[in-house]
């Protein structure tokens, strides 16, 4: 039996989302076509968009369907930055350290190719972006700030960010905000309109854009959305047929949207109860790990400040990758949470941004729970962990090559 505890990487598709996907793939018709088959496809697409919008607290017209979270993040950051730099230069993008690579690499690209300046915001010990730091940076850079971008919840250590407070500060300064809600969607109540209202966002200032992805909530890979406020100003990345408010050209993926909508409706419909169930499993797992390995340390906040399905632990004196491989051999799939560049494990940039040493950042393991997780999965991990930890500790940290046979 394989125990899958890597739901933040991708979560199994929901059976109804698979059925809806397969059915919709059999439908012929480009939603831009005038004939009745095209119009039937368009109706399916627009009904799906309505359902997706209802789960995000926005109007259907504000849902720009994309090929996933990465494209949504690229579109938001590059598109808003270009739009804001049409007139007087506003080179600065404020972003916390420890963002997902979809953001970091986009920022670095803009820096290298377009002359953007990145104002990195510090994370505290728990991975939290502090609103006073955002306020200070907005004041320091003044009218040179193009936008603020941040994660709603950190995909690695699970820290939930004070999005409304930060959006309110940006709104006061007339600055647009993009939120990457990929890791939060399906686990937290991410209501775009509610945050806009509560933060005093209006027009193109405050929260204007939010990225989500279908495969993190039981929908298909390769489908996502950027929620883009009507009043936001953005330059498109893709040019072509002018679909989706001319923001995202390209023939629209009806089957992907239909399947995404089924997953979104199911997941957000069960979200509140599921969050309670997962938080209980998460806390039992954290207690079990800290009892089995007393030197282990929980990264990120405990309790309500973290995603209900996220456990991220630092193990002293061993490589996270050794633990990962040993647990895999025991039939348990987990992650280190950090990027693996061309097969070479890197110490987590999120933990580094939280002030951990490289050594501390190397022994990290991320366990993420989701809709298929049950008590028996937690038991299986807790049973396999002591042996895996003992063996990984013997292999130690001596070099970057894992020594599983040691
Ligand atoms: C926080 C976050 N942003 C963006 C992405 C990218 O989404 P996608 O895999 O749909 O491109 C991910 C996926 O891991 C993520 O966790």
UniProtKB/TrEMBL annotation:
The keyword ATP-binding does not apply. Gene3D superfamilies: 1.10.260.50, Aspartate Aminotransferase, domain 1, Type I PLP-dependent aspartate aminotransferase-like (Major domain). One of its GO terms (molecular function) is iron-sulfur cluster binding. Signal peptide: none annotated. It catalyses: (sulfur carrier)-H + L-cysteine = (sulfur carrier)-SH + L-alanine. Residues 3-381 form the Aminotransferase class V domain. Pfam families: Aminotran_5. The keyword Iron-sulfur applies. Keywords: Iron, Iron-sulfur, Metal-binding, Pyridoxal phosphate, Transferase. Its cofactor is pyridoxal 5'-phosphate. Belongs to the class-V pyridoxal-phosphate-dependent aminotransferase family. NifS/IscS subfamily. This is Cysteine desulfurase. It comes from Mycetocola miduiensis. The lineage of its organism: Bacteria, Bacillati, Actinomycetota, Actinomycetes, Micrococcales.
